[in-house]
Amino acid sequence: MEKTVPAYLLAAEADKIQDILFRSSRLREVVGGSQLLNEFCKQGTVLLLEKFADKSKDRILINDGGAFRVVFDDENDASAKSRALKFADALKEFYRRCLGGNISVAELVEYKETDEKSFSKSIKDAQKSLRIAKHQRIAEPYTDVSETISHLPYAAFCTSCGIALADFEASVENKKYVCLYCDYKDIQRNLSKRAVVNIFRAENLRNLKRSEINQNIKYPDKHDWAEKIGEFDSRNYVAYLLADGNSMGKCFDDCTNKKTLKKLSRSMTKVARQSLSLPTTELFKTQSSIKGKGILPVLPLILGGDDIFALLPAPWALDFASKFCTTWEIEMQKLLQTMDLLHSPTISAAIVICKSSYPYMLAHRFGENLLSKAKSFSRWLPQNAKTSAICFGLISGNEISNPNLDEGDCRSTLGVYFANNKISKDFLPLSKLIDHRCKLAKLSAKRRNELKELYGIDRIPKESKDENNWNQELETLLKRIKQIDSANGDILEKALQDLGSSASGYWKEMKFHHQYFKSNGLSDLLTMWDYTFALDKDLKDKVYEVE
Question: For the residues 528-532, what does the mean pLDDT come to?
Fold first, then answer.
C-alpha cells in the first residue's frame, strides 16, 4: 500500500497594518506604504519562497492585504515541515526589514493533499490557530519601533512619523530627518506613482476613451492629495470612504480546494477596483468641475481584498458610497457564482466628511467607529434580508456630528442607511436622501436652518410626553413655509412623509437590536446638505440652482 505523505498549510498575517501604513505625516507616504505592502505580498513573498521550495507560485494560495496561506507538500515529510518553519522565520524578518512591522504565524496545519474535506478543514483550523497566535503572541512578542529607546546625543526623530529614530538627513536646508521605513514608503510612492493612475486607466475607467483619460487624469506631484481634492468643495472639505466586506471569512471557509481559494483571494482586490470604477467614471463624465481640475478625484489609500480606505471629493460622497457598495455586491455575487459558492455578499461602509487639513489618521479612527455600527447593523438583519449598510458623520470644526444610536425615544438621526434601494419599514435607502436633496434644492437657507435647529439634539424631545409640543412647532413651521412658498412647502411635506411617516410629527418608528425609537431622515439630509449631490447631475445643473 502506497504511503500518503501529508501536506502542511502555513497561515500568517501582518499585525497592526494600519499603524504601519499611517505612521507618516503625509498622504503620499500612506500611498507609498500601501504600494509597498502590495509589492511585498505579490512579489516579495514569491521571491522569498523560491529559496525554500520549488514551484513557489503554485504553493501560494493567499498573498494579499498582509494575509498569507502557503502550502508545503514535498515528498519527504520532514523536509516539507522544516522548509515551512524556515520560510516562516524568513518571512517575519523580511517583513520587519521592509515595513518595520511584525507578522504572526500560526502553527502548521497538516492535511491530506488528495482529500477536499481534509483541505477545507485545514483552512478553518489554520484560521483558528492564527487567531490564537495573534491574541496570545505565540509566534513571538510584538515589538514596535515606538518602544522606549535609549537617547543618543546626536540623534533625531523622523520628521514624518515622529516615532522612529531618523537614519539619515533627507534635506539639509529644511532640516528633514527621516527613518528608513518612511524613506522606503516615499521611494515606493515615487517609483509607483503612476500605479494609482494605471489602476483606473487599465481597469476601472473602462467607459472613458483613452484620449479622455490621458487628458484628464494627472498625478499631483507638487501638492498634497487632500489639498487638491478639497478644492472641489467651496469650504475645502474632503470625504474619506471606509469599507469592509461582511462575513467574507465564511466564503473562505467554504472553499473546498486550492483552486477556488486562490481565485477568491486574487479576485477580491479586482472586485474592489471595479466597484470604484462606476462612481469614478460618473464623476469624470458628468461633473465639469472635475474635468476642469484635471486630476484623479479618487485616491485609494488602502486597497487590499475587501478592505478599502479612499479619499474622494466631499460634495458627492454619499452617492459615491451608495454606488460603490451596490456595485461591489453585484461584482462579488458574479465572482462567487463562478465558484459555486452560495453566498449573498454584502459590504459595510462609512463616510467621514472633514476639512482637507484634518489629520487622516483621526478621520480613519472616527470612520472605524461608524463602520463598526454599519457592520453591527448588517449582522443584526435576518439572513433573508441581508444588505449593505452605510453610516456617515461630519467633523465640522471642533464639532463631530456622530450618528448616536443611544439618544432616547426620539433621535436626530436614523444612524444607518441601506446602500441599495431596499424597502424596509424600519430603515431607509441612502438614495432617498440623494433624491430629496434635488427636490428640496430651492428651499431657502433660512428655512433649512430653522428646520435644522428644530431637529437639533438639544431640541429633539427625549421622551414621548414632550412630543406634542415639538410636533406642534414643526406643524407651525411647515404651515408658515406653505404660506410663503406653497410649492416648496408641499415638496417639504412630501419629503417629511417619505423620510419618516404620515403620522403626527412625521416620526418614523424604528427598531435596532432590542431598541425602539423614532426619527426622520430629513434631519440627516439637513446635516449632510452640502454632501448629498447626485453623481449623474452636474453641480451647475438647473435642479441645484436657487432662485
Answer: 93
